[in-house]
């Protein structure tokens, strides 16, 4: 019998890679997608199966993490062996503008799914993965951060994810459910959402190289992140649910890079060298050959409270899951730039608010 998985957030970066992985392992994969006025399935088009096909193994359901009746019905229909809760309002900056919605989807959404499992009496059948995050660590308490480092969330997003983290631990302890938190550090790819900083940078470098954009406006260039490749991180999610005993795991590379450095690499990868001038809000990056200003700091992208440094210690995942990252952040940047050079040949530039 093929295993059945349900993925929320199936149309997102991780949802797309996880669907591919589970299909390659012979799973039947159900995904929850939101209704949208335009197509939002671009990342999963290549695995989409028409509902009229016989032997359909990839099945999409309309749904939303803010709608419990919908979630209960979808879980009842799929009877999943594994649920991966990846859906979220996942943008930290945007969470300051939509804090209530973020709490509803990211915190209560996780609770709704756990309750759906209980209401349907699937506690002993269904394993649960929660997309927890390094943003839980927030204000630096310890470096590098492990499963035991205290949390100090610094945004409505992180505070919502903190609730989700603890409700998962509580349902594991209270009801003996197989629930695990993956505390994942930033992971990127050519499928990364266009407003997260790495993709914003690689798209802009490609567009500026091709003469389709003049300037890249960014926020805090000093922030440091532990960036890995999303395709490798979804493997870790699956490995967590294959363990006999549920637990919480950090997935990270153990290496942190400044946003400024990532900008330099991306422009280097399109054959441009940056010459930085000024400091803080005045800081600007000039193309060393033409002398044109191509990068500028815009305070609109600063966050009311920032997370300065995230660097993870993935030793527990190495030892217990046998999980390891493979792609270096330098290679990740190059891969994203190369893909964006292809995308940008035909793309129209969308302006970020
Ligand atoms: P994305 O933003 O790419 O994808 C989020 C997904 O959630 C999309 O499919 C989106 O749908 C869906 N979604 C948003 N709100 C709702 C809702 N109310 N109901 C149902 N679906 C909804 O995120 P990633 O793939 O990068 O991340 C996956 C998860 O992992 C998220 O929970 C994120 O917070 C978490 N995480 C991500 C990390 C990273 O570095 N990528 C690191 C640590 C944690 P739509 O396509 O319609 O917008
Ligand atoms: P993050 O990712 O907040 O870590 O959350 P993001 O790429 O948005 O920011 C990383 C760092 O870059 C700084 N920054 C900018 N960020 C954006 N988005 N746009 C800019 O113009 C810009 N300039 C500088 C940010 O201030 C920050 O310090 C991601 C998401 O995927 C979360 O869902 C996930 O939980 C965490 O990673 C781990």
TrEMBL record:
SUPFAM superfamilies xref list: NAD(P)-binding Rossmann-fold domains (SSF51735)
Keywords: Lyase, NADP, Nodulation
Highest taxon, organism lineage: Bacteria
Domain (NAD(P)-binding) ranges: 6-336
UniProt keyword Nuclease present: no
Pfam families: GDP_Man_Dehyd
Lyase in keyword set: yes
GO biological process: 'de novo' GDP-L-fucose biosynthetic process
Enzyme Commission no: 4.2.1.47
GO MF, one annotated term: GDP-mannose 4,6-dehydratase activity
Catalytic activity: GDP-alpha-D-mannose = GDP-4-dehydro-alpha-D-rhamnose + H2O
InterPro entries reported in the protein's UniProt record: GDP_Man_deHydtase (IPR006368), NAD(P)-bd_dom (IPR016040), NAD(P)-bd_dom_sf (IPR036291)
CDD domains associated with the record: GDP_MD_SDR_e (cd05260)
Cofactor: NADP(+)
Gene3D superfamilies: NAD(P)-binding Rossmann-like Domain (3.40.50.720), UDP-galactose 4-epimerase, domain 1 (3.90.25.10)
Family: Belongs to the NAD(P)-dependent epimerase/dehydratase family. GDP-mannose 4,6-dehydratase subfamily.
Function statement: Catalyzes the conversion of GDP-D-mannose to GDP-4-dehydro-6-deoxy-D-mannose.
Protein name from the UniProt record: GDP-mannose 4,6-dehydratase
UniProt lineage: Bacteria, Pseudomonadati, Pseudomonadota, Alphaproteobacteria, Hyphomicrobiales
Gene: gmd
């Amino acid at each position: 019998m093929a295993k059945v998985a349900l993925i929320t957030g199936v149309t997102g970066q991780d949802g797309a890679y996880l669907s591919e992985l589970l299909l390659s392992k012979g799973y039947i994969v159900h995904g929850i997608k939101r209704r949208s006025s335009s197509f939002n399935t671009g990342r999963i088009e290549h695995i989409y199966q028409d509902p009229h096909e016989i032997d359909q193994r990839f099945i999409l359901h309309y749904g939303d993490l803010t709608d419990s009746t919908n979630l209960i019905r979808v879980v009842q229909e799929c009877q999943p062996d594994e649920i991966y809760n990846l859906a979220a309002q996942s943008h930290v900056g945007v969470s300051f503008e939509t804090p209530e919605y973020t709490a509803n989807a990211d915190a209560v959404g996780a609770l709704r799914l756990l309750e759906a499992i209980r209401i349907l009496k699937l506690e002993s059948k269904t394993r649960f993965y929660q997309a927890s995050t390094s943003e839980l660590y927030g204000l630096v308490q310890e470096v590098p951060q492990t499963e035991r480092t205290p949390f100090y969330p610094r945004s409505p997003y992180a505070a919502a994810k903190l609730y989700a983290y603890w409700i998962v631990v509580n349902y594991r302890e209270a009801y003996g459910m197989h629930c695990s938190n993956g505390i994942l550090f930033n992971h990127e790819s050519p499928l990364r959402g266009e407003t997260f900083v790495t993709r914003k940078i690689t798209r802009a470098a490609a567009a500026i190289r091709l003469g389709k954009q003049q300037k890249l406006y960014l926020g805090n260039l000093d922030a440091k992140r532990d960036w890995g490749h999303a395709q490798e991180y979804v493997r870790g999610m699956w490995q967590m649910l294959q363990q006999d005993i549920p637990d919480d795991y950090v997935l990270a590379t153990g290496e942190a890079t400044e946003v400024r450095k990532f900008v330099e690499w991306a422009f280097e990868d399109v054959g441009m060298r940056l010459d930085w001038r000024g400091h803080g809000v005045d800081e600007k990056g000039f193309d060393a050959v033409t002398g044109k200003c191509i990068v500028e700091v815009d305070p609109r992208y600063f966050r009311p409270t920032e997370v300065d440094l995230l660097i993870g210690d993935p030793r527990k995942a190495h030892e217990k899951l046998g999980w390891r990252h493979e792609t270096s952040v330098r290679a990740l940047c190059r891969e994203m730039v190369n893909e964006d050079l292809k995308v940008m040949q035909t793309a129209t530039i969308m302006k970020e608010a």
